[in-house]
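User: Show me a protein chain along with its predicted structure.
Assistant: Here is one chain, sequence first, then structure tokens.
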Amino acid sequence: MGKFSKSILAGIVGTIVMSLFIVLGAMMGMPKMSPPDMLSIMLGISLAIGWVMHFMIGITFAVSYSYLFAPKAKINNIYLKGAIFGIAAFIVAQIALGILGAILPMPPQEGSMVLVIAGSAMGHIVFGIAVALSAGHMLTTESNS
């Protein structure tokens, strides 16, 4: 399996882990968040297509991790590298939401906006770590073969 395929797999793993983290967070009192629902409402598409887009965005971020971020980031700790990448992904996502929100109607958010932002940041950090662990392990394994 090549680097690109492994990056796609890391994006799928990262998106699953982030999605589970969001669901568990809501069960523990964090505001309910659903990127697929948000995409579905904002773009006027089905929820199924919202899920597909959610995974495609995760895959795009993971590919950018493998090809752009990881080779340039001089960070030896894989968890720290993933967390920093997750923060970068969070910032990019917030900018994209700001732009989309200026063009399209935003769905109403439940709960405190501070908790929504904190939950989103934590979700993206978890995503970044999952991608770094998945891609990092897979890419290291490839280079050792």
